[in-house]
Amino acid sequence: MDGYRSGRIAEIVPLLAAFDTAATEGHITHAAAVLGVPQSSLSRRLKSLEQILGVALFQPVGRGVALTAAGRDLHERTRGALREIDDAVHVVRSNADPDSGSVRFGFPLTLGPVSIPSLLAEFHDTAPLIRFGLVQAHGEALCAMVREGRLDLAVVIPPPDDLPTVHLGTQRILLYVAPSHELAGRTQIDLAELAEERFIANPPDYHLRQLLETWCKEAGFVPQVAFEIGEFETARALVAQGLGVALLPVSERRVVADPGTSRDDPVGIPLAGHRDRDIGLIRGNHRPTPAVARLHDHLVRRAGAFVSGGR
C-alpha cells in the first residue's frame, strides 16, 4: 500500500477541523464557540498546524482574522475533504439506529399552511424519534441551501435542473382581484387584458415574479408593479383592498378554513392557457442518511397530496 506523501499526516489531520472552522468564521472566539472548546485551545491547535507546515495561515484583520495566501490555498484544498468526512461520519452514526436521526427539510412559502404539516404529521406517526430542522423559503433560496449541504431535502416550485428530483405534482396559478373589481365576475382571463392593471408581485428573485414578467411579455406588455412583497397572505390582503391584482397560487389556508369565498376575500380567476408550476422534491448529490431516505420515500408515496387545482 502506498504511504502518505506528507510524513506528518497523522499530526495534521486532527488540526484541520480547527483550521477549517476558524477559516470559515473569520474569528477565533466565534470558531472556538462553534467547536465548544476554549479559545486558548483553538489558538494552540492553529499555531501547531502553522509550525508543522512552516507557513503562517492567518493574519489579524480588525477584531477577526483573515487567511493568508497559503491559508486560502490550504482551505480551498481541504474543505471539500472535511465535508466528505463529516458526511461519512453522519451516515455511519445514523445507520446505527435507522429509526432515529435528523432531517434538515425545506419547503416553499405556499405549501406551509396545510400540505407539508399534514404530511409531516403522517410521517411522525411512523417515525416519532426522527428529529427535524425545518426551513420555509422561496424556491431559489431552498435550492441554494440543498446545493450547499445546509438542507437534506426540499420541496421546491419549480425544481432545478442540476439536483436529483422527483416530480410531486403541479400548482395552479390564478389571477386574483378584489371582489369589487370589474373583472371579478369573469370565469377566465387572458393576460393581454391586464396591460393597464397595477400588479402586486413578489420580489424579482422569486419564481412567481419571473413567471409574471415572462407571461406578460408573451402577452405584449410589461407589468406595472405597484407593490413588492414576499409574504403571500399579505399579498392577498393587499389585493382584497383594491391596491392591485396578482398572480398567485390557491391559498391552502383559506380552502381548508372555508371552501367558499367570503365577501372580503380576493377573487381567483383562471388564466387562459397552461398556467401551472411543477412541484418537485430535491435532494443533494450525496448519499442520504436512513432518516432522510425514509422521509424522501414517504413524500414520494404521497405525491398526490401536492396536486393543486384551480379552485
From TrEMBL:
Keywords: Activator, DNA-binding, Transcription, Transcription regulation. It comes from the Bacteria. PROSITE patterns: HTH_LYSR. InterPro entries: LysR_HTH_N (IPR000847), LysR_subst-bd (IPR005119), WH-like_DNA-bd_sf (IPR036388), WH_DNA-bd_sf (IPR036390). Signal peptide: none annotated. The keyword Amino-acid biosynthesis does not apply. Residues 15-68 form the HTH lysR-type domain. The keyword Transcription applies. Belongs to the LysR transcriptional regulatory family. PANTHER family: HTH-TYPE TRANSCRIPTIONAL REGULATOR CYNR (PTHR30346:SF28), TRANSCRIPTIONAL DUAL REGULATOR HCAR-RELATED (PTHR30346). This is LysR family transcriptional regulator.
